[in-house]
Design brief:
Structural class: alpha+beta
Number of helices: 29
Oligomer: single chain
Helix content: 25-40%
Distance between the termini: 102 Å
Largest sheet: 7 strands, mixed
Number of domains: 4
Strand content: 15-25%
Radius of gyration: 35 Å
C-alpha cells in the first residue's frame, strides 16, 4: 500500500510550545508515541504511557487549554491512515501520565528545645535502632528528632563540588546523608514542605539561601557489600551494589530521562559497573545540555548529586596485618581495581553530568591512597561550621534528659548528664580544640533510650554501639607505634577534687590523608599517620592545647585497654583464673604476672624500654584492672594522701576487694635497662640477658650504671636506703609512710586488711614484688609469676 508522509503537530498539555513530528499513515500508534517522545522539547515519561488526543480542527496550533475528552483519545487500535483521510496534517495533544502521590503524612512537632523537636502526646522513643531514612523518621510520631537541617546550608557554602566528611562509626552519618538526599533530590520536591517545613533549613529556603530539589541524587551504600575474604566474591558483590544503585537511579528519574527505565537498564547497565556509571553520567549530561526552555522542568536541574555512604567500609576490611609485631600491609590488602575504576569515573564525571559529590566514611586512607588519586574533593571534616554535624552537643543531651519521660526529675537529669559526659563526651573535631565538645550520637541515643523505656543502663560501659570498631582495634594493636600512642594517651586518674586528668599526646604534624605505606613506615614518619588514623576512628581527639591530642572519654579508654590486653596475648582462661585468685583469695601475684608476661612480649623496641613507673602503672590499670571485673573499676590511681609528717603524697595504686575487705597499697618503681649493669651491646640485647634471670635475689644484686646518684649501688641497697648522697627517701620508706597515712587508716577502721607491696619493674622484663611487714620490707622478695 502507498504510504504518505504526514505531519503531526503536537502540544504537550500544560505548555504553549508546539512541535512537529513526521510520521506516515503506515505507522502504528505505538510508532507515533515513540516519535513524539523523541521529538518533544522536554523530557517525557516512557512512550507507552503517553495519552494522545486528536484536537478539533482549526487554523494554527492548538492551545493547551483546548477541551478534549475520551472520545478524542487515540487508542492503540486506531489507524493513522483513517486519521489522515482528509488532510496530510493533524493536531495532537500529548498528556503525560499524572503521578498521583498520596499526601505525605509526617509528624507535626509541637515542642522544641534547642535542636530537639518532638510531639508531646506521642513521644516515647529516640531514633537509635536502624533509623537511617529521614522520611521514615519524620513519619514516626513516637520518635523525637535532633534538627540538624541547618547544616544543609553549611555544606552548600563550600566552593568545591566534591566534599569529604568523615566521622567515627555510629555517629549518624547515614541519617545525615539521607537528610541531604531528601532535600536535594528532585523526586522529593513535592514533599519539601511536609518534610522540612518548620525545621531550621526552612528559614534558609524562604530567604533564598539554598534551594531544594535541584539535583538527580545517585546514592551508593558501600556498607552493604559482602566483604568476603574471597576477593572475587567481594568484587562481584561490589559490582552488584554499584550497578544496583544505578538501576535504582534510572527507575527514580525515568520521567526525565526520555526512555523507560527498562530500556535504560537494558542498554546502559554493563557487566563492569564502572562502565555503567560512565554511561549514566553521559545520559544525564546529554539531556541537560539540550534544555533551552526556561519553563522546562529540567531547566532547574543542575545535574547528578552523587552521595557515597561509608565509602571506606569495603576496602578497610582488607587492611589486615600479617605480622603481629612488625605490621605491614599484605600484598593483597589494597582495594580492588574495580573500586579504583569507580572513583576514577566519578572524578572524570565531575563537571560533566556529576555536579556535586558528598562522601561519608570513617578514614581517608582508602580515598587518597588506593583509588587512583581521587584528590579533587575538599576535606571538610575538621571545619568549624560542621563541628557538631552528625554529633550531639551538650545542649542536645541536656534537652533530651530534661524530658519528663526520660529522667523524671532535674536531680536525675543532672546525675545522668554527669555519667554521659564522662563516658560519651569529649570529641572535638576542630584542630586546636576550637570546636565544641560533642558526644557520639548512637552511644548517647542508646543510653537515652534505656532511660525512656524505664530501664536505665546500669553499666555505662555496656553500650553496644561504641565508637572504635573491633577490626580497627585489631589493626591498631598490631602496630607497636600505635600501641605506644594508645598507652601514652590512657588516662591517669586523680581522686583529688573528683576530677579525671586526661593525658595529652603532643604532635608536630598530623595530616588529613594517610596511606598504607605511611602507616607501615619508619617510626618518625608513621607516627603522624597513625595519629591521623586514630583521630578519624574516634580514638583520639583534639584538645585545647594547639598541638595535642587526647583520648576523648572513658568508653574509648576502656576499649583501648581491652585491645592492649589482647596485644599482650593474655588468654581469657589465664585472665579469669588470675582474677579469680585475686577476688576470691586475695592473691594479686598472678594478675601482676600477666602484666609481666605481656610486658616482655610487647616491649620490643628501644623506645619501649624507656617507660617510667607511671607508664607501667597506667598500662596495668587500663589493660587489666579496669577491664576484667566490674568491682575493680574504682581502682585508685595516684591517690592523694597525707604522710605522717603532714606533707602530701600520692599512692600509685589502690586495689580494693570489698568482698574480702582487703586493700592492696601498691607503690610502683621502674628501673630502665640503661641504668642496669648487665650484658653488653644494645639495650634490647641486654634486656634479653636480663629476661633469663629467674630469681628475685639475683635481680636485687644487680648494680646501677649511668645514674648520677645510684651508680655502683645494688638495686636492693637503693630500695632499702635510697640513692646515696641525697635526702631522697628510699622506696621502702615511701611505702611505709603511705601505709601509715590517715587515709589508709580509715580503710583499716572500716575493717579492711591492708597489704602494702612495692612493685619494681626491672628493665621492662621482670616485675619484682616485695611486701611491707611493719615498717620494713619482709624477707621474701619475689617475681610476679603466673
Amino acid at each position: 500500500l502507498f504510504s504518505r508522509s504526514l505531519n503531526v503537530f503536537c502540544t504537550i498539555d500544560g505548555t504553549r510550545v508546539p512541535f512537529p513530528v513526521d510520521v506516515s499513515d503506515g505507522d502504528t500508534v505505538f510508532d507515533l508515541q515513540d516519535k513524539i517522545k523523541l521529538a518533544a522539547p522536554r523530557p517525557l515519561p516512557p512512550a507507552p504511557t503517553l495519552a494522545l488526543y486528536k484536537a478539533p480542527k482549526g487554523e494554527g496550533f492548538t492551545e493547551p487549554g483546548v477541551t478534549v475528552g475520551a472520545k478524542d483519545e487515540i487508542n492503540f487500535t486506531d489507524s493513522l491512515r483513517g486519521m489522515f483521510a482528509e488532510t496530510n496534517s493533524v493536531q495532537v495533544i500529548v498528556r503525560p501520565p499524572s503521578y498521583h502521590r498520596s499526601p505525605l503524612n509526617v509528624v507535626q512537632y509541637d515542642c522544641r528545645s534547642g535542636d530537639l523537636v518532638w510531639k508531646e502526646d506521642t513521644f516515647r522513643s529516640f531514633p537509635v535502632h536502624g533509623v537511617h531514612c529521614f522520611k521514615s523518621l519524620r513519619q514516626r510520631p513516637e520518635l523525637c528528632f535532633f534538627d540538624k537541617t541547618a547544616f544543609i546550608s553549611a555544606l552548600e557554602s563550600f566552593s568545591e563540588p566534591a566534599l569529604v566528611f568523615l566521622r567515627p562509626r555510629r555517629s549518624g552519618k547515614s541519617l545525615g546523608l539521607s537528610m541531604l538526599a531528601h532535600f536535594h533530590g528532585r523526586e522529593h520536591l513535592p514533599d519539601y514542605k511536609p518534610l522540612f517545613g518548620g525545621l531550621a533549613i526552612d528559614e534558609h529556603v524562604e530567604n533564598n539561601r539554598v534551594f531544594p530539589g535541584n539535583y538527580f541524587v545517585l546514592q551508593f551504600d558501600f556498607s552493604c557489600v559482602d566483604r568476603s575474604q574471597d576477593r572475587e566474591v567481594a568484587r562481584r558483590s561490589l559490582n552488584l551494589m554499584l550497578n544496583g544503585s544505578i538501576k535504582q537511579f534510572y527507575t527514580t528519574y525515568e520521567p526525565y530521562l526520555r526512555k523507560s527505565a527498562d530500556h535504560l537498564i537494558q542498554d546502559l547497565i554493563k557487566d563492569d559497573a564502572t562502565a555503567s556509571l560512565g554511561k549514566c553520567v553521559n545520559v544525564v549530561h546529554n539531556i541537560l545540555t539540550r534544555v533551552e526552555n526556561p519553563d522546562d522542568p529540567l531547566s532547574k536541574i543542575k545535574g547528578i548529586y552523587l552521595m557515597a555512604d561509608e565509602y571506606d567500609s569495603y576496602s578497610n576490611d582488607y587492611l589486615i596485618p600479617n605480622d603481629s609485631v612488625h605490621w605491614k600491609p599484605s600484598e593483597g590488602a589494597e582495594p580492588d581495581s574495580l573500586l579504583k575504576g569507580f572513583w576514577a569515573s566519578v572524578k572524570s564525571g565531575l563537571g560533566s553530568g556529576i555536579s556535586k559529590c558528598y562522601i561519608t566514611g570513617v578514614s581517608q586512607q582508602s580515598l587518597d591512597g588506593n583509588t587512583s588519586g581521587f584528590n579533587v574533593a575538599q576535606y571538610v571534616s575538621w571545619e568549624s561550621n560542621l563541628a557538631s554535624f552528625c554529633s550531639l552537643t551538650e545542649a542536645d543531651v541536656t534537652a533530651a534528659l530534661a524530658l519528663k519521660k526520660v529522667s523524671g526529675s532535674a536531680a536525675k537529669a543532672k546525675k545522668h548528664l554527669k555519667i554521659m559526659k564522662d563516658h560519651y563526651n569529649g570529641f572535638n573535631f576542630v584542630p586546636g580544640g576550637r570546636g565544641p565538645l560533642t558526644y557520639n550520637t548512637n552511644t548517647c541515643l542508646e543510653y537515652l533510650q534505656r532511660l525512656a523505656e524505664g530501664n536505665p543502663m546500669k553499666d555505662p560501659f555496656s553500650v553496644t554501639n561504641s565508637e572504635v570498631s573491633e577490626a580497627s582495634l585489631r589493626l591498631l594493636v598490631a602496630s607497636p607505634v600505635a600501641t605506644r600512642l594508645i598507652e601514652d594517651g590512657l588516662f591517669s586518674e586523680s581522686e583529688q577534687g573528683k576530677k579525671v586528668e586526661k593525658r595529652t599526646i603532643p604532635f608536630d604534624t598530623i595530616g588529613k590523608p594517610f596511606t598504607l605505606t605511611s602507616l607501615a613506615g619508619e617510626l618518625a614518619k608513621s607516627e603522624a599517620a597513625w595519629l591521623s588514623y586514630m583521630v578519624h576512628l574516634g580514638g583520639l581527639t583534639f584538645c585545647l592545647r594547639k598541638k595535642a591530642l587526647r583520648i576523648p572519654n572513658l568508653v574509648v579508654a576502656e576499649r583501648f585497654g581491652n585491645a592492649i590486653l589482647h596485644r599482650y596475648q593474655a588468654s581469657l582462661e589465664d585472665v579469669n583464673d588470675a582474677f579469680k585468685s585475686l577476688i576470691e583469695h586475695g592473691y594479686i601475684d598472678r594478675v601482676l604476672g600477666l602484666y609481666a608476661r605481656g610486658m616482655q612480649q610487647h616491649d620490643i623496641r628501644a623506645h619501649d624500654l624507656k617507660k617510667k613507673e607511671e607508664d607501667h602503672c597506667r598500662s596495668m590499670y587500663f589493660t587489666f584492672l579496669t577491664n576484667i571485673h566490674p568491682s575493680l573499676r574504682k581502682v585508685g590511681v595516684e591517690t592523694t594522701i597525707t604522710k605522717p609528717s603532714g606533707t602530701p603524697g600520692r599512692i600509685d595504686m589502690l586495689v580494693s576487694i570489698p568482698s574480702r575487705k582487703q586493700l592492696f597499697v601498691l607503690e610502683w618503681k621502674s628501673i630502665r635497662i640503661d641504668y642496669i649493669q648487665i650484658g653488653s651491646g644494645a639495650p634490647l640485647e641486654r634486656a634479653t640477658v636480663l629476661a633469663e634471670m629467674p630469681d628475685a635475689n639475683m635481680l636485687l644484686d644487680l648494680k646501677f650504671r649511668n645514674d648520677k646518684f645510684r651508680a655502683g649501688q645494688t638495686i636492693k641497697e637503693w630500695i632499702m636506703s635510697g640513692p646515696k648522697g641525697t635526702k631522697e627517701h628510699s622506696p621502702q620508706r615511701q611505702l611505709c609512710e603511705y601505709a601509715r597515712s590517715p587515709e589508709i587508716g580509715r580503710w583499716e577502721k572500716e575493717g579492711y586488711t591492708v597489704t602494702p607491696i612495692l612493685v619494681v619493674i626491672v628493665g621492662s622484663r621482670h616485675v619484682l614484688l616485695w611486701n611491707l611487714d611493719g615498717d620494713t620490707l619482709d624477707a621474701s622478695p619475689r617475681l610476679a609469676l603466673e
